[in-house]
Fold Putative ubiquitin-protein ligase.
Amino acid sequence: MKFLTEIWHPNIDKNGNVCISILHEPGDDRFGYEKASERWLPVHTVETILISVISMLADPNDESPANVDAAKEWRQNYQNFKRRVAQCARKSQEME
């Protein structure tokens, strides 16, 4: 899953790629961070994936960031973080 517009979020890299366990290849995590049950399983539906992504957007996992700068700002300066997110949203609206 990838965002095509600019987005500022700890779990979305600078190219727009979403980093969330449910989208990671099935099986054990070679780094031992995720349980196999948290990763991709054939029982997942579009609905379960979208619910997981919506949850991640609202409550980032800043312990395992795809965008370290966004995670740092999320932790240390939440007001600036929210301002940057709003800027990305405005840019996206202007592109429509």
The chain has a mean pLDDT of 88. The domain at 21-95 is CATH 3.10.110.10 (Ubiquitin Conjugating Enzyme). The radius of gyration is 14 Å.
